[in-house]
Design goal:
The complex is a heterodimer of chains A (228) and B (417).
Chain A (H helix, E strand, L loop, with lengths): L6 E12 L2 E13 L4 E5 L6 H8 L7 E6 L2 E2 L5 H10 L1 E4 L11 H12 L4 H10 L15 H13 L5 E5 L7 H18 L2 E6 L10 E6 L2 E5 L4
Helix pairs in contact in A: 3-4, 3-5, 4-5, 5-6
Chain B lengths: L1 H6 L4 H41 L3 E5 L18 E4 L7 H8 L3 E14 L2 E10 L1 H4 L4 E7 L9 E5 H7 L6 E5 L5 E14 L24 E4 H8 L6 E5 L6 H11 L7 E4 L1 H53 L4 H30 L8 H4 L10 H28 L2 H8 L1
Parallel strand pairs in B: 4-9, 6-8
Antiparallel strand pairs in B: 1-10, 1-11, 2-3, 3-4, 3-10, 5-8, 6-9, 7-8
Helix pairs in contact in B: 2-8, 2-9, 2-11, 3-7, 8-9, 8-11, 8-12, 9-11
The chains are: A alpha/beta (228), B alpha+beta (417).
Chain lengths: 228, 417
Amino acid sequence: MNKSSFVDVRSISKTYHRNGTSVEVLRDVSFQVRPGEAVAVTGPSGCGKTTLLNLLAALDRPDRGEITVGDTVVTKLHTWDGARYRNRQIGVIFQSYNLFPQLTALENVLLPMIAAGSPDPKHAAGLLVTVGLGDRTSHRPTQLSGGEQQRVAIARALVNDPPLVLADEPTGNLDDENARAVLDLLTQACLERGKTLILVAHDLSALHKVDRVLELRAGSLRAHPISS
Amino acid sequence: MRFKLAFAGFGRRGIEALIAILVLAVASAVVAFSAMVVEGARATLHQVEIEQHPDVIQVKGPFNRALFETPRSGYLQPLTLPVYEPLIDPNELTNMAGGATVLKHQSLLRNVVSGDSFLNVYIFGIEPDKESLVSAFALQRGRFLQNDDRDAAVLDEASARALDVDVGGSFLVRKADGADLRLTVVGVLQGIELFDSPPTTVEAPALKSGSPFVSSGVFVTLRTSESILARQTLTDALVIADSPDRVPDLVTRLKEVFRLEPAVFVEETYTRYLRQVSDFQLTLVLFAAIGSLTAINAGAFVAKLMHDAYEDRRRQYALLLSLGFSPVGVAGLILGFGLAVALVGGGLGSIVALAFKPPHFLMPSLMADLGTVVPRFDFLVAALVAGVAIVAALVGMARIVWILGRGPIAAALMEGG
């Protein structure tokens, strides 16, 4: 791994087999991300952006290639180590928020801490204040707007202080105004805390705050100039 | 919060979980009741086996008519009469019985003068160490007979009172040769449960008044009774087979031995017992089948409901894994929900079965002779009900656990969303 990179993706390929047909989603994809860098991965629907994020989060395995995050070789993690890696090393933000409807905002934020065995409600509540939801801690997801739910998800992703944040189209379900606000919040929070951010996004115009844009097309990756 | 993760937020599927609990409760009640009847019947059969001794074969000579002719008044010489004709050769019997246990008896009636009237006392020559296999003796004072006792007797309270003797005392028995034998009392019994006791034919002291069978007597060792009767042949004997199913074979062999002695009767209760037990067991099989079919049907239905509830929840479980929860922790949540449904349903069913169980379950006709079936709830019934409920819940969760355990978490996240 390049000493200056925090995330090192090397020649990964992934093919899905379904109903007798094979779809090669990622083909020999390689890239590096420096510590504290914010990188956007973009591309058309179905080009493998979410698959790439799933591989980075050890939620799936590549057919070939290797992924290293910090000192962890993600592609060699076993089930138990995968859970620990996700809990300690990364924070994941999904497009559809993925909050638990039966839990309050505070409880949702606390979940990764519970998984780690060290729940700290004060810290979780503080993060909710940071994302502007200090007065909504006891609200359930159904009582929150889409933008608010995504802010809860951001707080949840940051609560264990992971060095890497993976966001899968976090603004995909939001209107322009909310999308801008959430994106600002996410990039700002990561920047302030020195987190490495890999952001999957559809809309290039919303990516003015990332350091680099990588474009996936037909399973292959290429650098993309950031539009001003 | 783990409680909320395991049990809250099911929405419409929560109603299915409730239905699953209710179905499980009804099914568990049926299974529990069937199992309770089967368990009660097993206990009855066990009791019947203890009481009826289907493993015992009775060998006896003809009933001695002389007993009927025993004078009840007037002054006569005391008599010592065998209750059954002493026709059984003990050695022949022992040889033919093979490994079976043989209880040799000499049953006598002694007719004595007591004041100005006659007193009849039954005397039983027994082997003390073996007799308690089939008969019960409740000692009040003193001790019971020992194999090497000579001229010693243990007698029941009623006979002791009639003879006016107690432990340490003695009384005379006229032997067949006309001489008197003095028996020393070593123990007094307050209760006797004689297996295959002879019919009461003459008035004698009795522990159970009005009983058609002898309920009292003087017990001596076989050696002593041989001395009284002046012969070794037995009046009756019991052969205890190693197991009840060996009885027919033993009976055949015993009848072969005594074929030249047609007055020796070989009787067994095994055949009748077997017929009764077979009917009984068939009825139990029916109950077991009802319980099993109910368990399978209801279990499959509950498994389907649970499966739907779990499928609906699959994304949440996958999400927990993606947040860093260990697979075991997530499996614990899945299992917790399933076990809770299973145990609540099973528990409710068991309570209903217990609340509405009849005090007695009446078996029809022939089987009723074996005794009353008291449905009983024991560990086996509880384990069966819990087992059915837990298996149903486990089957319901099997697919989701398989998917989460084997497939990539990403797939579960995507499919659920």
